[in-house]
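seq/struct pair 1
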Amino acid sequence: MRGPLLVLVLLIPATLAAQQGSAPVRTDADAGQALFERGFGKDGAARSVVEVMPAFPGGEPELYRRIKEETRYPKEALRNGITGRVMVHFMVEKDGRVDSVWVPRPVDPLLDAEAVRVVRGLSGWSPGTMDGRPVRVLFRLPIAFTMDPAAAKKRRRKATRRRG
């Protein structure tokens, strides 16, 4: 009985000390909540935070044509029948360049790396604007790596046999 009581007595001061530093976190949370609420109207309907979204030269058709043209299916992924849709996130900066490219939910390292490479090469965007000033905008772009399902299954079986 003495052991648990001693542990409890030792933990109480640590708990009290940890609670003393919680005020800045609450302040940060309040500031974050205020930013969040600015993105919504009084009725709860979503408002566009950016008045004019960034645009790729030539519009969406040109963007997708360029992605299709630049994307190379990784040989190892093709050989092993790896398919998937990679959702790439990136920032379009105030000057229209692409920055901070990342994949929040990795599909396969080979496919992810190729999707990031392709998106990094998409330069020349016209920047998004808010109140007439250019702003940074987060973009999400899906890049699909597909092949015939029967062929993919056959390649996966072969890859399993090669490994095992």
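seq/struct pair 2
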Amino acid sequence: MSSDDIFKKTRKEYERGALDETSVAPDPIAQFRRWFDEAMEAESGEANACALSTVGSDGRPSSRMVLLKSLEDEGLVFFTNYGSKKGRHLLDNPYASLLFYWPALERQVRFEGGCSRTTSEYSDSYFRSRPRSAQLGAVVSQQSRVVESRGIIDSSYASVEAKMGTESISRPENWGGFKLVPSLVEFWQGRESRLHDRIQYEKIDGEWRRDRLWP
């Protein structure tokens, strides 16, 4: 069977839910909390996994999966190496998008907005909560840079692990959080005949405006 035939056979109908603008919360973060709680119950994987899309100074977009680590009334927080490709992009162009996809519920949520670094104290607090192995990984990693082999990564980790012994590990200065403060949020619920429900929140003059979009 050719790949074209396989793709044709993947078509399915979306019929597990509906979304009505009269039933959603007036604030998108509150609505997201509702859906996230339901996704935590329904999904077998990491419901907090999302695609982060950034654009560099060259105007070229780039996407990768990250994990949402904090949800606050004003925004969403994830952590990374500031020297990574996404970290450099966000320092050059602080606007980004986070996309959550929960296939078990046939739902997507997209956030768009500006990103800024969390405070050092905030990043320190989260870093201390990480497993020691993840702390060591953050110290070792030169994220997004070219490396000649896996062996170099493993030997670097072993070297730092031996050097640190049982000492506490401090957060590297080049590692920390970003908070995305949304100005636009879209909730997508799959529906039959590809006539999906799409409810968009857009912040205008400090207030959230809610609209239904054509699928």
